[in-house]
Amino acid sequence: MASSTRGPVRLMELELYFLIARYLSAGLCWRAAQVLVHELEQYQLLPKRLDWEGNAHNTSYEELVSSNKHVAPDHLLYCRRIGAMLDKEIPPSISRVTSLLTAGRQSLLRTAKGTLI
């Protein structure tokens, strides 16, 4: 498992790094994507590939892109759909005003108690 100064990096964080690099690669910040991909590979911060015996192997960014053809560069933006589902369960204070950057009832990361996940 990859690790940082904070300890082991969870799979979801590795996948998020990949999605960010994928998103940046198709936009105006493609050079930032190149730098990010270089660091992800250098520090082994990409999801590992499992072989038929369950052994984990490092993968390159290009291998991940190739093996995840269903993940388009804008895949990260589909996460906004989560907001619509969350609004049904935990309505925001002001309808249609939500953000990843706000706190409390307007945050896309809110819980029923009004705290961030």
From TrEMBL:
Record InterPro entries: Bromo_WD_repeat (IPR052060), BRWD/PHIP_N (IPR057452)
Biological process (GO), any one: cytoskeleton organization
GO cellular component, one term: nucleus
Domain BRWD/PHIP N-terminal: from-to ranges: 5-86
Domain of life: Eukaryota
One Pfam assignment: BRWD1_N
Protein name in UniProt: BRWD/PHIP N-terminal domain-containing protein
Native source organism of the sequence: Macaca fascicularis
